Input
Amino acid sequence: MTSKKLILSGIILLSSIILTPSLLNAESSYMYSSIPPLSTIKIPPDEVKGIHITSSVASNFKLFKQCLSLADRTELNAVVIDIKETDGVIAYKADIPLAREIGAIKSILDIDEIIKLCNQHRLYKIARICVFKDNLLAQKRPDMAILDKNGQIWSDFKGCCWTNPYSHDVWEYNFSLAKDLIIRGFDEIQFDYLRFPTDGRISNCWYGKERNNKTAMITISDFVRFCKQGLGAKGYISVDVFGLSIDRDLGIGQDFIGIAKYADFISPMVYPSHYYRGEYGLMDPDAMPYDVINFSTKIAMSKLEGTGCKLRSWLQDFSLKHQYGTVEVQLQIKALSQHGCNSWLLWNPFCKYTEEALMPDEDADKNGNFYIPSPPEEEMLKNESLRLAGLSTISSMIVERCSSDYDFED
Output
């Protein structure tokens, strides 16, 4: 009798499903509603944790997939890919007539495949464009170039020619590239070399008008506004600036606050190796990564208040005077997090990044244990090289922690 009741109940249930297929659809919709299509998955741009990838690496799918695999295993969720470097070459088949006319296009990147792979790996996609240091455009179009006072194309000490930041034709050219990349699927455009030259016989430069620091700063900021207005809500804009531009006028047009008024994100290159002895009162900034990022971030955050622009600093994952590895990278990230900054970018010219410095994906290791980094000074004391080279960092951190306005706790 019981078995008959079960059979009868099964028949009734099956009939109800057949008669009301929407019930089955509803169940399917419920089961998969939390898994959106890959194309709709969005990384919050103020939580971007990315790495820089050169166009040569991105063009080699074996190497590129190694970068994607690193992102799969770690907290990384974004890539910054070089599209136009200072030589002026555009690394994909861009739909820009002037670029074709001057021979700037070198199709080494399969943009569609790169976008597809990034989407499959759920990565936020940033296209890097070097703007005013553009050797090819300057040489092919002298009317868009910085000239010398004799009317010849000016070049810096490395022999590279620059386009004229005052030229709106140069603005249009770079904006056209930015727009094309957004249309093709990038989430954000990152402008680099958004400045006037820093080396060479700068006093011999001629821009077709008198140049001074005030007009230079206005011009760079106006270019950012021009591009932001052109893209609207279709894509984000970020700008790379020198770390020292955070709190001073370097005479190259990088007005930190002026740029921040129009950019969505600003990325100071606060590499400790690039600071002179005595900066922020530090005897050896390169050996004190936590301190450099801590002090620079504190100043930058105060400057950005009210601008609507977010800080996303470039951090150092390469070695110059001092060897950088797991601890040094983690110290920089920790310093940012102390100020509530959860977005950063790592730079290594060879695209080789320190995986051990990054948290595993989903904040868990292979055994499912959540990864909680030790306080910076404990990490340093575990490391022999840092114990020898970084004692000044530990002492300065302890001193600062004892100050009334410093809160070390997360």
Notes: Residues 35-269 form a domain with the TIM Barrel fold (CATH 3.20.20.80). The longest strand covers residues 78-84. The CA atoms of residues 131 and 174 lie 7 Å apart.
